[in-house]
Structure prediction request, 195 residues.
Amino acid sequence: MVLVPDSSSASAPHDSSPSDSTPTAEPLAVAALETERHVASAGWDQNPRVFALVDTAALIAAEPQLAASLDSAADQAPGALSAIEQEDLPRTANLESLLGRMAWPDSVDGVALAVERIVIPPGAERDLPQDPTAAVDALAEHPQREDVRLLVAVHRDGRAVCLLRQRANDRDDRVATGEDIAPGLVHALRETLKD
Prediction:
């Protein structure tokens, strides 16, 4: 279950049931897939989005009215996680700086981050200008550039899931998954969960 706050203080559920050919029942993977599909439904060219991952049973105990929104077996499975989007993030050009200022209360079991990136073939970066602004401009114009969106989800117990969606293959059944797709982001998100 992905919860996206509306303009009031209440949260509204977003239905995004897994539909790929290799379903998973592992709660962190299910939460990551649902959150990635929720983000994908808003299209491309988005700012980074951050989600707190909380135990669904604990959330329902605290907010009983949300029980009616549980519409899949995964939402009701032991250890199920719900994603709650963190709105009004401070604007920054430095994602590392933003993550470095984040901390989560004990009631948050994990965190997910969706961020878009430009990738170019190995070796192409040696032709980029040294000036950071000029390098960004060169990346944006590179003929072999590829736009991707990463969704990285980590749990307090150390588990991690990374999903990668390519703009050129923008379909739910073409999302790559793995634990080591974005090791730097996995590490940075784990740091936000430390006491």
